[in-house]
């Protein structure tokens, strides 16, 4: 109660005495630590992680994104430490009465949301970037690891410069600090001026890390620096529009990587990766709309999922495609300038882009961005576009309905509420005779009426397509939908793919055709004969993206069929497909002849898993060359780009001594990417008692495995045929222990549950799952959508095994 009545139009300053416990965990203001190998001692640091709503645990504040404020930060610490925060240091003052202690005072911040405040006290070394840019760019890490920051220090300023050019807005702060945090729950965090990272997301060691590790570091840095505009300069008003931050950062990062690292083909490959994640994860009943109401702090965490990041990125790319590059850039520039240092919602973005689209004539006047995009952000799922051609009358019809992975939406009669859904869909297409896969702009729009019902498109076949010419929709996967053609059109496509000129079809569309055909067969929309006849062309395919799409879906079938008597049949089928590409890429030879590293890794992982050719033998040879040396100071002779394959294959074939050797290398490893790789490989062993011991190590409170890596290690065990039942039983029988180990983080527990349910496909395992959830209602209450999604995964697997597997194996038996 105040001692007097406050008078209007007067300024008052409120002083609050505030205390909070300074403890472990990985949120709020917390303690982290690392091992100083030279001195063999543990060193400590403090750091913050305030997103989404943990600033309130560190200081009194209005802890919501719309309450932007300036912050004046002062940190007290011993002079042997470095103090960092969002802004540069203005001065340091000795603390009266405390020898060798300082107050470090920072400049006042720009107006920003509380979740972006960051500060740390540590004994790290700083690596200043050598560049001509005006912004002071420094990367911080333990002195023993600072050499691993050279790549991050090199790429960061160049990405920042690129973003300044494409957004036409200068980065507004005088500095950027990048800070490696040993214990960190997120992959990275975009705090304005002081970006924090997991060590594996920032460190790259040329002598130990792979090319894939290098690309991952670049991608994460590109994502966080894009946030300096999307999220920091302009922030969403509330957490329902988190996708405005994360979707944009995910998409814009692909543009940055493509500009600076063209050899990775990052734009196309990341776009395909995002699209596949969306088409898989958004096809469940338990999915959600991108923008949805959230009211409780406990719900915020569930927003940080593939729908926010990946689907956000996919629909932004779609918008970029249908508005055109000039409109897109000018619209974003208007949006950023109009709302700089403030907050916005998706309607503000639509408004800026619509104004630009109509100014440059890139959208028809009867459409605006909001009318189109609301259908993609305010409802869950995505459409299945069905194309029927009348080859006699030379006409075609196109209609849409929601695609569901279990096939229950296959017919409208089954459940109208499930299948109902309508999207404004930009339809691009090309034809066999005049194949043009560069024209990604929409030729026509599939639209909805005022009651949001589908308006089917009936038209003469475009450009007078002859009856023997295929038609392909969605050029370069511009929009997130699946396409099902009539049987004749599928057969025309298959004929071309099996011919010598299959490359006439764009690489992304070859990947699309494979992914769509297999997904449509999974739920009964398409017969497996057509899908697998199409897939057989891949024996002559050398490009990465079609293989990535094929193996992504076949991985799901592998998880189910490896538990059945049909596995040998599946193994023969897969080895027949893989043998030509395995040979073409050089097998387990270290020289990849300029081939795509991720492609070679992917193919070799499958080859060793399925005992193709000499893959396992060569992997074990590499590993034993290292094992026999038994010298911790010897440079690892296993080539960096083959290590993920070699380690797993060797442990799959090896004994307990092989496992112990790799575990010891994990404990001694100083390269973050190597530690991450070894953690996953340790789960590949087939020795039951070793797996049980590894499970105990993973969840041991005093384990050398950090809490943020528990999910990574546990997931590796679930992927093993022998490890899966052991991991499942351990999770269900020790749930109370796991809850304590993960500090009651029910979202993380639900993520572990999902790793289990992805492999459940038998009625017995499903009954066990249901009984477990019935006994642990608190888990479902605190992570409702995550748990329901995990259960639905198991239901979908069970449905395929009961309804579709017989058709799949009939085709295999006929061929193999």
Protein model, in words:
The chain has 816 residues and is α+β, with helices and mostly antiparallel strands. Among the domains are: 28-233, Zincin-like (2-Layer Sandwich), CATH 3.30.2010.30; 235-380, Orthogonal Bundle (Neutral Protease, domain 2), CATH 1.10.390.10; 686-815, Zincin-like fold (Alpha Horseshoe), CATH 1.25.50.20. Helix content is 45%, strand content 14%. The protein is built from 30 helices and 23 strands. Strands 8-9-10-12-11 form a five-stranded mixed sheet. Strands 21-16-15-23 form a four-stranded mixed sheet. A three-stranded antiparallel sheet has the order 3-6-5, with no helix packed on it. α16 runs antiparallel to α17 and α27 packs antiparallel against α29 (784-803). The protein starts with 27 loop residues before the first strand and ends with a helix. The model is unreliable at 409-416 (pLDDT under 50). GO terms for molecular function: alanyl aminopeptidase activity; metalloaminopeptidase activity; peptide binding; zinc ion binding. Its EC number is 3.4.11.-. The chain crosses the membrane at residues 12-31. Its main location: membrane.
């Amino acid at each position: 109660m105040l001692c007097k009545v406050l008078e209007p139009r007067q300024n008052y300053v409120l002083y609050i005495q505030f205390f909070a416990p300074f403890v472990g965990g990985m949120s709020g203001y917390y303690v982290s630590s690392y091992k100083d190998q030279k001195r063999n001692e543990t060193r400590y640091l403090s750091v913050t992680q305030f997103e989404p709503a943990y600033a309130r645990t560190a200081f009194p504040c209005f802890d919501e994104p719309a309450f932007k404020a300036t912050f004046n930060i002062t940190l007290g610490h011993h002079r042997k430490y470095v103090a960092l925060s969002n802004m540069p240091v203005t001065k340091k003052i000795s603390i009266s009465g405390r020898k060798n202690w300082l107050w470090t005072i920072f400049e006042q911040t720009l107006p920003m949301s509380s979740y972006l405040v960051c500060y740390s006290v540590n004994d790290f070394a700083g690596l200043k970037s050598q560049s001509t840019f005006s912004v002071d760019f420094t990367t911080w890490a333990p002195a023993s690891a600072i050499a691993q920051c050279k790549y991050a220090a090199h790429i960061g300023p160049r990405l920042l410069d690129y973003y300044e050019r494409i957004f036409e807005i200068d980065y507004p702060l005088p500095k950027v600090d990048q800070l490696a945090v040993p214990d960190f729950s997120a992959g990275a965090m975009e705090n304005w001026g002081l970006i924090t990272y997991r060590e594996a997301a920032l460190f790259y060691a040329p002598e130990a890390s792979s090319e894939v590790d290098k690309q991952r570091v670049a991608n994460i840095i590109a994502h966080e620096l894009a946030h300096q505009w999307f999220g920091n300069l302009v922030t969403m008003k509330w957490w329902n529009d988190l996708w405005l931050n994360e979707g944009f950062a995910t998409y814009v990062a692909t543009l940055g990587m493509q500009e600076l690292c063209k050899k990775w083909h990052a734009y196309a490959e990341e776009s395909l990766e995002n699209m596949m994640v969306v088409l898989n994860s958004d096809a469940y009943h338990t999915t959600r709309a991108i923008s949805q109401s959230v009211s409780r702090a406990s719900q915020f965490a569930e927003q940080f999922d593939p729908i926010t990041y990946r689907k956000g990125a996919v629909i932004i790319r779609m918008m970029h495609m249908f508005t055109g590059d000039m409109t897109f850039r000018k619209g974003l520039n208007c949006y950023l300038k109009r709302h700089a240092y403030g907050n916005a919602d998706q309607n503000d973005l639509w408004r800026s882009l619509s104004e630009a689209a109509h100014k440059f004539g890139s959208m028809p006047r009867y459409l605006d961005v909001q009318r189109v995009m609301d259908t993609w952000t305010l409802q869950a799922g995505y459409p299945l576009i069905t194309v029927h051609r009348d080859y006699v009358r030379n006409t075609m019809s196109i209609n849409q309905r929601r695609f569901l992975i279990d096939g229950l939406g296959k017919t409208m009669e089954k459940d109208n509420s499930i299948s109902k859904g309508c999207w404004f869909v930009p339809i691009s297409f090309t034809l066999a005779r005049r194949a043009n896969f560069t024209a990604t702009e929409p030729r026509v729009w599939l639209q909805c009426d005022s009651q949001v019902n589908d308006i089917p498109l009936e038209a003469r076949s475009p450009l007078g397509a002859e009856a023997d010419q295929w038609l392909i929709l969605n050029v370069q996967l511009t929009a997130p939908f699946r396409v099902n053609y009539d049987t004749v059109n599928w057969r025309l496509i298959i004929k071309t793919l099996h011919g010598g000129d299959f490359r006439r079809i764009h690489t992304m569309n070859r990947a699309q055709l494979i992914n769509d055909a297999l997904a449509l067969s999974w739920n009964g929309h398409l017969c497996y004969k057509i899908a697998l006849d199409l897939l057989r062309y891949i024996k002559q395919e050398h490009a990465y993206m079609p293989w990535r799409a094929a193996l992504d879906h076949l991985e799901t079938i592998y998880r189910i069929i490896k538990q059945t008597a049909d596995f040998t049949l599946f193994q023969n089928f897969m080895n027949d497909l893989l043998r030509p590409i395995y040979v073409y890429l050089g097998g387990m030879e270290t020289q990849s002849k300029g081939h795509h590293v991720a492609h070679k890794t992917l193919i070799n992982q499958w080859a060793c898993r399925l005992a193709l050719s000499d893959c396992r033998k060569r992997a074990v040879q590499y590993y034993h060359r290292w094992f026999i040396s038994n010298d911790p100071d010897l440079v690892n002779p296993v080539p960096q780009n083959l290590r993920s394959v070699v380690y797993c294959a060797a442990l799959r074939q090896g004994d307990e001594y092989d496992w112990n050797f790799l575990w010891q290398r994990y404990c001694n490893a100083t390269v973050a990417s190597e530690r991450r790789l070894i953690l996953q490989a340790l789960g590949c062993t087939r020795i039951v008692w070793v797996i049980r011991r590894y499970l105990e190590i993973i969840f041991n409170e005093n384990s050398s495995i950090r809490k943020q890596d528990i999910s990574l290690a546990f997931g590796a065990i679930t992927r093993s045929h022998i490890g899966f039942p052991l991991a499942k039983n351990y999770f269900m029988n020790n749930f109370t222990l796991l809850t304590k180990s993960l500090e009651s983080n029910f979202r993380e527990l639900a993520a572990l549950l999902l790793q289990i349910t992805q492999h459940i496909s038998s009625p017995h395992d499903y009954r066990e799952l249901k009984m477990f959830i019935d006994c642990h209602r608190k888990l479902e209450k605190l992570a409702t959508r995550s748990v329901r999604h995990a259960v639905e995964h198991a239901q979908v697997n069970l449905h395929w095994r009961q309804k579709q597997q017989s058709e799949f194996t009939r085709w295999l038996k006929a061929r193999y």
